[in-house]
Each structure stands twice: as C-alpha cells, then as structure tokens.
C-alpha cells in the first residue's frame, strides 16, 4: 500500500528533522537512510518542489528540512512524492457503476480514506517524539561534518 518512494521520502524527512537545522549532503542522507543515491535524488527533488526541504548547491551545500516538524504531516510528505489515489469512479470503467462504486471498490476506497486520514492527523514531530526502544532509521555515522 505504501510505495517504496513514500518509504524513502519518510526516511529522509525523519533524518532531516532529527539533524535540523544542519545541512546534510545527499551522500550522507543516502547512507543513513539506506536509499540508493540516484533514487534519493529524485525523491529529494519532489520534496523540494513541494517546499518540504530546502536544497543548497555548492561546496558547503546540502539539504535540510524547510518546515516545522510540528506542522508537517505525514500526508504532506506522501502527497509530495506519491499521492494516495482514492477510488472515485469504477476502476473498470463500467458505465453502469460510474461514481456508484461496487461493494469491493467502496471498501477499498474506505480503507484508503482511513489511511489518508491517519496520515493527515500525524505530524513528523509526533513520530519523532513517540516513546520507543527502536531508534528510527539506523545508527548515525560518527564522521558527519555536522557533528563536533
């Protein structure tokens, strides 16, 4: 249900929020999030276009979160890279059905609505603040240029 692109985008914004306000090189983000660099570049472009991250070119450049994690919902991240497609009309294009979905497609759309609603109610800050014994992502490399 959640695409690989969405998973990669969420990993990236979690990392950027954890390291905020530091600028991270794309290579650093790729390493920590375990996302292939070429794929990550496309994901970061979509997040930048949506205004979720900010990119800076050059030797001292990198990427950083461009919004407050308390204001950024998971749904906004999802919609930036691979929006949830609700079922509005019959996917089989049956004229007799039109916007009157059959019971199967009605239930599938209801499930998508619940996912969309849950993501809209959840901010990035809430995800980061949730008590857990599992640290999001993986251990951070200690050789980051943004650490003392």
Automatic annotation (TrEMBL):
Single annotated GO MF: DNA-binding transcription factor activity
Example of a GO cellular component annotation carried by this entry: cytosol
Originating gene: nsrR
Coiled-coil regions, chain positions: none
Source organism (scientific name): Stratiformator vulcanicus
Pfam families per UniProt: Rrf2
UniProt-recorded name of the protein: HTH-type transcriptional repressor NsrR
NCBIfam families in UniProt: rrf2_super
